[in-house]
Design brief:
The structure is a single chain. The protein is mostly helical and 132 residues long.
């Protein structure tokens, strides 16, 4: 019976419910007023943002001295020579190291170990170039 009485009391307290509703509406209106101050920049059209960037790019260009100018790009083909690969082996055993075995395609070209204190090869009097 006590449980039923509290339900009836809660449902009949119209003044308290009305006050809660008024506070909720006031907080919503206050949030709507503050929104444009905090988040109004999101309403800026994209065209206006792009116009600002275009205006910044219209600065006059200063002619740099010759020693500070960027040189034109040299084509990669001038420095790197690409030799066609040999045919792909038919077995997985032949696939391991198949490019490195061809003399023109070796990975370690003119391989030498450099050290500031001298090389280990000199101490042991070994040849500088690797042996197969």
């Amino acid at each position: 019976m006590a449980h039923r009485r509290t339900d009836l009391a809660q449902s009949c307290n119209f003044v308290a419910r009305d006050n809660c509703w008024k506070k909720y509406i006031e907080s919503e209106l206050e949030a709507a007023r503050r929104w444009s101050h905090k988040w109004g920049f999101l309403k800026t059209p994209l065209e206006e943002l792009i116009e600002d960037e275009k205006k910044e790019n219209t600065k006059p260009k200063i002619q740099l001295p010759e020693h500070l100018q960027v040189r034109p790009v040299t084509p990669v083909e001038k420095y790197i020579k690409v030799i066609p690969s040999p045919p792909v082996p038919k077995t997985t055993q032949g696939f391991i190291g198949w490019r490195a075995a061809v003399p023109g395609l070796e990975l370690e070209h003119d391989f030498q170990i450099q050290s500031c204190k001298g090389t280990f090869f000199k101490d042991l009097k070994w040849p500088c170039e690797p042996s197969d």
